[in-house]
Amino acid sequence: MKSGRDACAAARSVTEQSQPAPINRPGLQQALKEYLQTNRGVRADTDQIFVLPTAQAALNLIAAIVVTPGDGVLDRRFPDIPVPPRHFAPPAPA
What we know:
- By secondary structure, the chain is an all-alpha fold.
- It has helices spanning 4-17, 26-40, 55-66.
- α1 packs across α3.
- The longest helix has 15 residues, at 26-40.
- The chain is elongated, with a radius of gyration of 17 Å.
- The two termini are 22 Å apart.
């Protein structure tokens, strides 16, 4: 698992190349920072707050940071089809 700073650096790297691009606005990031600190007790710098145009863009960013090429990923595009528990088991060692 990456540290918060490492994840932010990775996110910045990914967002520089991503479409749609982040819509970071200093005023919005500052307002979110203050809200998080005052109402949620979360301390963050404005450079750690990413504002993205859609939920899908946020999910794509998270996937790009967490998943590396060659990782096994569970495909849940068809949520009505039950997935047997064996699909959640870690892969067998090579």
